[in-house]
Amino acid sequence: MTDPRFESVAAVREGLRKVDYLSDEGIAGIVYLADRLQKPILVEGPAGTGKTQLAKSVAEMTGARLIRLQCYEGLDEAKALYEWNYKKQLLRIQATGGENDSWSDVEEDLFSDEFLMERPLLEAIRAEEPVVLLIDEVDRVEVETEALLLEILSDYQVSIPELGTVTARQIPLVFLTSNNTRELSEALKRRCLFLHVDYPDMEREKEIVLTKVPDITDNLADQVARIVRSLRQLELKKSPSVSETLDWANTLMLLGVEQIDAETASSTANILLKYQSDIAKAVREFATDKQGARQFAPGPK
Amino acid sequence: MTDTAEPGVRTAGEPLLDLLNGFIVELREAGLPVSLTENLDAMAAIEHIPLEERETFKYALAATLVKNNAHWRSFETVFEVYFSLRGAKYGIDDDTLDPDLAELLDDADNQGQGDGGSGQSGQGGGDALTPEELQQLLYQAMMKGDEALMRAIARQAVKRFAGMEPGRPVGGTYYLYRTLRNLDLDGLLEKMMDQRRQSADDAGESLSALEERLEKDEYEHRVEALKKEIEAEIRRRLVADRGVEAMAKTLRKPLPEDVDFMHASREEMVGLRKALIPLTRRLAVRLARKRRHNRKGPLDFRRTVRASLSYGGVPAEPKFRHPKPHKPEIFVIADISGSVAAFARFTLMLVYAISGQFSKVRSFVFIDGIDEVTSYFEGVEDVTEAVHRVNTEADVVWVDGHSDYGHAFEVFHNKWGKEIGPKTTVIILGDARNNYHASQSWVIKEMQHKARHVYWLNPEPKSYWDTGDSIVGDYGAHCDDVFECRNLRQLERFVEHLA
């Protein structure tokens, strides 16, 4: 039904690089595979590692429209799939006033396309042009609501009782992201390819910093990546994520830092780390000599 | 380079599918839940990704077969065993390996001389090198972070030092130990750091503490990589010798949630600690949700009327008050003597991590004396540190530091017994191995009268209960329930039951 979008794994990687997303073999390989097997990808991993960005970048790279469904607790059919525009339906009934139209006409009319409000999932299925569907933070919906997704994920179709089954005109590339705050149901997992996006290794992180932070020197990017790697080896409540690394690199650029020493690292650690206990731990690590530790210990100054 | 693997494999098709089948059977044996559809997906996947692109191939298989990141390590191990000999680059053939290696080694050797190094002659390739020269080469490769060379040296080192003989019934760790002993990696690390400091000095600058730390991290990282390379090489050779199934069986390890607390190795402990953090988060979310979604509260009149306005005053959508089930008050009494310490630690961490679900948590630890440690956890963000303090600072030794449940309970009763009220849930952690002291089980009986619940968690397998000096049956008679709690899975189930 849909022609494959990508030539090869290398082509995916290259394409993603062009839109400033640095993938690795795993990410590129699975995106390629998802296209070939026509299966959705379930992307999981710590916050701030570019899960959502991956979907956006793939959309940008293929020139497809991105349709996004943000999940939250209490999301229901009416918000995710479709809804009948009942106010308009009421108006329709009132407008005819029962003169010429027979009831059966009206009834047929009421449940037609005109009164159907598309929500993201249906929109993605009915789109004519290529689309990328992003179902963000799917772990936030209740287990029961997950079932809404199953039909669309496995068969790319939506059944509307009044209208029948709407089948996809093109197979959209589907990304689901999860922060793993709860275990997703087996049924959902089984329908997806699973991709765990972890913190990048040092070389890739350095490259990411180099591409995303304008004018940063190679030397500084290298230092940033190394320090972040060291921090991730500590037992922290929340390890610094890629987006925090980028924030930090940007900050350092703004401050005009060319060489990171213990002092700058300690005084800007609050950008990388979000918990007081983590910051304290990091500062201790940065400044091995006790003097420094005391001087830059967090707290009121 | 020629390949020594069976000829059929290169052309994919049947043999590869057979291999995949065996692979999936082994994954299931290792405890990973692989469903039939996932199996089919994997077969479809390998049609699109050639085996030659090893890393991608691995990720493709993982994407279809492994749907939980905690299972990744198990998957990787099995993958290494099953596919380590497949693909041109990965075959084992000492003859074809050598020219390649020799070339690399020669190259490096010549360069080494150019740098004023100590390699004596560039001729001879891998085998002709003396151990000292190999060591020197390794040092240079590590300094430069030259991965290809490191890999070549790892292979050479295994070939030379491990002393592997076909059919010898020893484990991979033995060979690993032999190889590493000969390479002296600690010394190497020292030497690298010295060299780095030296070169910094030469350049007229000294390394700051931070820089030194970063350099050290970098070198440690490289040494780790080398170790992995050596391990992989040993595994490859073992697989070639013993066959895939046998190797997979010996390497089979329990999944993190199934690791036994009492017999966890250090590495497994680290894995457990890592698994605990997402687990507590998940558990907290689940419990909070359960609390919120219980729709059995009374009708909320005000909100129902408000909602009825949009239906023209018809109360079509009744709203209910959310019930507020009371939060239990928890007393944790934990044995922290050697054998069960790890278990107590995990349980304390878990209980405190979700302490928001309880109105109050108080904790006591004992060996033969007993001490309250609640204050260690108060106002501390980092539970790990608090638990560490518990282990080092609590005053728990009375006479000889051997478990004495009886005495500990008696003291507990005298000091804190009155504070147990009808809202309290008491959780006792321990194997009840009392070293044949008096049990004083009347204390537990008293507790049960006053407390809401008394639970006992025993980290020993059920079949060991009441054998030897274990008297869990004595105490259990007075508890609401006694649970076997050997791994994270069981612990998680219990905590959910509790809240």
What is the arithmetic mean of pLDDT of chain A?
84
Sheet with the most strands: spatial strand order of chain B: 3-2-1-4-5-6
Low-confidence stretches of chain A: 289-301
Topology, number of strands of chain B: 6
Notes on the structure:
The complex is a heterodimer of chains A (301) and B (499). Chain A has 301 residues and is α/β, with parallel strands linked by helices. Chain A folds into three domains: 9-76 and 124-196, Rossmann fold, CATH 3.40.50.300; 82-118, no CATH class; 202-289. Chain A is 50% helix and 13% strand. In chain A, a hairpin with a 3-residue loop joins strand 6 (157-160) and strand 7. Residues 289-301 of chain A have low confidence and may be disordered. With 499 residues, chain B is α/β, with parallel strands linked by helices. Chain B has 22 helices and six strands. Chain B has helices spanning 7-10, 14-29, 36-48, 54-65, 72-83, 94-114, 125-128, 131-144, 147-161, 172-183, 185-202, 209-242, 244-251, 266-292, 301-308, 341-353, 374-377, 383-393, 405-416, 442-450, 472-476, 488-498, and strands at residues 329-335, 360-366, 370-372, 424-429, 453-458, 481-484. In chain B, strand 5, helix 21 (472-476) and strand 6 (481-484) form a beta-alpha-beta unit. Chain B starts with 6 loop residues before the first helix and ends with a helix. The model of chain B is unreliable at 1-13, 90-98 and 111-125 (pLDDT under 50). Classes of the chains: A alpha/beta (301), B alpha/beta (499). Chains A and B meet through helix 2, strand 1, helix 9, strand 9 and helix 11 of A and helix 3, helix 4, helix 12 and helix 14 of B.
